[in-house]
């Protein structure tokens, strides 16, 4: 038999309860500092598969709730930090549009 190519989709998607549980665990453990991702995973109130946990971390990072530092450290971003991050993105996009060559815009 030949092996089929693997896709990056999860066999099971995390539920909203799982995402919220992980986000709350990171927020309580972080306390404004960096926390090891494995330590948080071990302290979760319910068992979660590592692949599911990493998928939730990716989602939270894309959403701007956490920031990964040094590949294994996680920092929970406060509301003010999230707003500042969004403002930086908006300013960068605006500057990028302003700097387009005249023949494009």
Beta-strand residue fraction: 5-15%
Per CATH, the class of one domain reads Mainly Alpha
The amount of helix comes to 40-55%
Which stretches of 5+ consecutive residues score pLDDT under 50? none
Q: Helices and strands, in N-to-C order? A: HEHHEEH
Which overall shape is indicated by the principal axes computed on the Cα atoms?
A: globular
Output the CATH topology of one domain: Arc Repressor Mutant, subunit A
Q: Note the main sheet.
A: 3 strands, antiparallel
Architecture (CATH level 2) name of one domain:
Orthogonal Bundle
Pairing-aware structural class of the strands and helices? mainly alpha
What does this structure look like?
It is a single chain. The protein has 105 residues and is mostly helical. It has a domain at 16-77: Arc Repressor Mutant, subunit A (Orthogonal Bundle). 52% of the residues lie in helices and 10% in strands. It has four helices and three strands; from the N terminus they run H-E-H-H-E-E-H. The chain has helices at 16-30, 37-42, 50-63, 79-98; strands spanning 34-36, 66-69, 73-76. It has a three-stranded antiparallel β-sheet. Strand 2 (66-69) and strand 3 (73-76) form a beta hairpin. Helix 1 (16-30) packs across helix 3. It starts with 15 loop residues before the first helix and ends in a 7-residue tail after the last helix.
